[in-house]
Design goal:
Elements lengths: L12 H26 L3 H24 L5 H28 L4 H23 L8 E3 L3 H18 L5 H17 L4 E3 L5 H5 L1 H17 L1 H25 L21
Length: 261
Amino acid sequence: MNYMRRKKGKPRKGIYLLPNFLTSLSLLSGFYAIIASMDRRFTYAAIAIFISAIFDMLDGRIARMTNSSSRFGVEYDSLSDVIAFGVAPAVLAYMWALKSYGKFGWLAAFLFVACGALRLARFNIQVDTVQKKHFLGLPIPAGATTIAGIVLFYSWMGYMGGLKTIIMPIVIYCLALLMVSKFRYISFKDMGFIRARPFMSTVGVIIALVIVLTEYQISLFIATSAYAISGPIYTLILHFKKEPLEEATGPKEDRAGPGGR
């Protein structure tokens, strides 16, 4: 009888477990990416980071849909993101292309982790002034998946000499600076189009899925790289349109545009 008398708006305790369980799966995938990188299984590590990003996206969505958001979930998600999208891609980049640089290599990897942690901390103190349309700075999952996308694309292209040791230092420094920048990134939180045109939205999702699965290495590389460079371009467009460039973040990150609550 007590079970039947629950307040209508109060979520069940089991619902609280689901988003935190998804966060744990995201953390697990990120941790596996670290292990795979240490074993020099770089393709597996890159795929694990993308899987982690999917779980990170789902946990926040489900928490909001089931009204099971909590401060604990927010903090757990942020701590998980530091490992899954900070440490994991940094270790991948270091083992894959930066190790030969010695101290310079691991310091570059550390810079990515530090800037990612600063990005998360900045979001957490701005959580009461969120906007749904924009993120302030490159979301950390987007930075992580950009690194993973480059690794997958390089693997698909085959042997290209030492090109990766030239490209990766530049990429990781750029991503680190983008995360702590004030460039605005579209958060894809506005669901108005999907609600207004659910059939066309479904068709679009299916088409996008087919494209990704056809050559996922190319598709993921293009998508992640395009999103990473979209912030400066989008901010420049807003500047010329003379729209206010106030600080903006998204709700506890789906942070990738690719989870939290």
